[in-house]
What does this fold into?
Amino acid sequence: MILKDLESRIAAFAPTRVVHKLGAMVNNAIYVNAGCSNVIKITRDAITSELNGVDGLIFLDDDLLPWPALTPANLGNLEELRK
It folds into this structure.
């Protein structure tokens, strides 16, 4: 009974959010769903790995496999693509 009351209160007062599947471009940044509750955030200055929900954006795709980690070697491969 308490759980149902809590769920109804959350549903009544929680802000409505758009749920993105694979990616979004918002506020001069590109966000890519990296799977496993992670998001790759790409800005003019950096490429970072963030937790899902960063900057208020939610991503959900149950079929998405995890992306490669943002290691120096993998980031170096991205630099090669920029050329």
Q: What stands out?
A: The first strand starts at residue 19 and ends at 20. The two ends are 60 Å apart (CA to CA). The mean pLDDT is 87. The longest helix spans residues 2-13.
